[in-house]
TrEMBL record:
<dbReference type="Pfam" id="PF02080">
    <property type="entry name" value="TrkA_C"/>
</dbReference>
<feature type="domain" description="RCK N-terminal">
    <location>
        <begin position="1"/>
        <end position="123"/>
    </location>
</feature>
<dbReference type="InterPro" id="IPR036291">
    <property type="entry name" value="NAD(P)-bd_dom_sf"/>
</dbReference>
<keyword id="KW-0633">Potassium transport</keyword>
<feature type="domain" description="RCK C-terminal">
    <location>
        <begin position="143"/>
        <end position="227"/>
    </location>
</feature>
<dbReference type="InterPro" id="IPR003148">
    <property type="entry name" value="RCK_N"/>
</dbReference>
<dbReference type="InterPro" id="IPR006037">
    <property type="entry name" value="RCK_C"/>
</dbReference>
<keyword id="KW-0813">Transport</keyword>
<dbReference type="GO" id="GO:0005886">
    <property type="term" value="C:plasma membrane"/>
</dbReference>
<dbReference type="Pfam" id="PF02254">
    <property type="entry name" value="TrkA_N"/>
</dbReference>
<dbReference type="GO" id="GO:0015079">
    <property type="term" value="F:potassium ion transmembrane transporter activity"/>
</dbReference>
<protein>
    <recommendedName>
        <fullName>Trk system potassium uptake protein TrkA</fullName>
    </recommendedName>
</protein>
<keyword id="KW-0630">Potassium</keyword>
<dbReference type="InterPro" id="IPR036721">
    <property type="entry name" value="RCK_C_sf"/>
</dbReference>
<feature type="domain" description="RCK N-terminal">
    <location>
        <begin position="232"/>
        <end position="349"/>
    </location>
</feature>
<dbReference type="InterPro" id="IPR050721">
    <property type="entry name" value="Trk_Ktr_HKT_K-transport"/>
</dbReference>
<keyword id="KW-0406">Ion transport</keyword>
Length: 459
């Protein structure tokens, strides 16, 4: 059985331990906070070690001599990198992953050569969240936009509204409304309950609908579920920290961007370093009088990305009340995310869930190429690369209706070379295909992995 050491029992470490323990992987979590470790032991079937993760003796006690992977996600970049160095030098751990936030490190890739700092994978929560926000802005009306097969196919979540042509009608009408546009509705969530869709399923207003389509068809499918929104032009970002700065730089080429930063010294620095077409405003984004003074109501999108959950929530609510079309707030506490999304705030962004998704793709076996957690972690979308042949695999050269998929799992798309195939029951899976699967129950992940992993014992 694969053995993994996780350094850090914060939100990311906790979420990763939860996902991997459900997969049946042997996990040990290391942290200096005994109370956090006790919470993990009470909730999951895992081992814990109390101590400083970069110390050789602590790693040894955590089982580093037998571990195949080290995932360092403490709050310190330097501790994470040093732990990878110790794990490689003293224990020859095969795969080392480090969460590294500081941009300077990411912009110096030669630091992470194997003969320098032996880190096999760098995870940047800020970069992941920035990319996620960009996709949401590029596709107005979406709740989630997730990419697979290097961007050739997307899984999009939208909320169905009255007025959408498909609302109140059966899903099979999609093929008549959009001839030539290939798409599949992978799942519908209605009042937090999962519905397995088929052609006779009727879409209701306020349903959260996840569909799979080639990137070029996203806008057309979205228009069937809700009134199509005009492209966004004016973006306001509350918070000039790492995420706010990254976001302003990334969006400045296509949008009119304003950044609000409370700290005067940081605001001056941003004004000097950001592109000249980005306007930096010094003030409190959670102050309704300040927001009124800067005409927040003229913004199309308001992104609250400070390091304070409560400030992000309050600023987002004020912006929405002022008439901003779309409001996104960065929320670190998972319990807050569940409470807020679908309320006043349109999208609650969880850096922990985004980071865990990126980690799961590397940690899991069986050809897993991409993993995205959905519905605040309740569901998953997985891209797996099919390998083996008809003698060693339960899926190769078989029709989809011949594959014993567990309940709640469905095939949303197949990418074969450069072709995106929206499959039917008689679509045959070939070796080398990228198969995008949707699971409404994360507890079925292990079963799906076994199904797609070739075995010499299968005939």
């Amino acid at each position: 059985m694969k053995q993994i050491i996780i350094l850090g029992a914060g939100q990311v470490g906790h979420s990763l331990a939860e996902a991997l323990s459900a997969d049946g992987i042997d996990i040990t979590v290391v942290d200096t906070r005994a109370e956090r470790l006790a919470e993990l032991e009470d909730q999951f079937d895992i081992k814990t070690v109390h101590g400083f993760g970069a110390h050789p003796s602590v790693l040894d006690a955590a089982g580093a001599r037998d571990a195949s992977m080290l995932v360092a996600v403490t709050d310190s970049d330097e501790v994470n990198m040093l732990a990878c160095q110790v794990g490689s030098t003293l224990f020859n751990i095969e795969t080392k992953i480090a969460r590294v936030r500081a941009r300077d490190y990411h912009e110096t890739p030669e630091l992470f050569a194997q003969d320098a700092m032996p880190v096999d994978m760098l995870i940047s929560p800020e970069a992941i969240v920035t990319s996620h926000i960009q996709r949401l802005i590029e596709h107005p009306g979406s709740l989630q936009v997730l990419e697979f097969a290097e961007g050739r196919v997307s899984l999009v979540g939208v909320r169905a509204y009255y007025g959408g042509p498909l609302v109140g009608h059966e899903l099979k009408n999609l093929r008549y409304d959009m001839p030539g546009v290939h798409t599949r509705v992978a799942a519908i969530f209605r009042q937090d309950r999962s519905i397995q869709p088929d052609g006779n399923t009727v879409v209701e207003a306020d349903d959260e609908v996840f569909f799979v389509a080639a990137k070029k068809n996203i806008r057309a499918v979205t228009s069937e579920l809700r009134k199509l929104e005009k492209p966004y032009k004016r973006i306001m970002i509350a918070g000039g920290g790492n995420i706010g700065r990254r976001l302003a730089e990334a969006l400045s080429k296509r949008y009119r961007v304003k950044v609000i930063e409370r700290d005067a010294e940081r605001a001056d620095q941003l004004a000097r370093e950001l592109p000249g077409n980005v306007l930096v405003l010094q003030g409190d984004s959670a102050d309704d009088r300040f927001l009124e003074a800067i005409n927040v109501e003229h913004s199309d999108v308001f992104c609250a990305v400070t390091n304070d959950d409560q400030a992000n929530i309050f600023a987002g609510m004020l912006a929405k009340r002022s008439g901003v079309r779309k409001v996104m707030s960065l929320i670190n506490r998972p319990s807050y995310v569940d409470l807020l999304q679908s309320g006043t705030i349109d999208v609650a962004l969880s850096p922990q869930q985004a980071t865990v998704s990126a980690l799961l793709a590397r940690v899991r076996e069986g050809g897993t190429a991409t993993v995205h957690t959905l519905r605040r972690g309740a569901a998953e979308a997985i891209e797996t690369v099919v390998s083996g042949d008809s003698r060693t695999s339960q899926v190769v050269d078989r029709r989809i209706d011949e594959i014993n998929l567990p309940e709640g799992a469905s095939v949303g798309a197949v990418v074969r070379d450069d072709e995106v195939i929206i499959p039917h029951h008689d679509t045959v899976i070939h070796s080398g295909d990228h198969v995008i699967l949707f699971l409404t129950d994360r507890g079925k992940v292990k079963q799906v992995q076994r199904l797609f992993q070739p075995s010499p014992l299968f005939f």
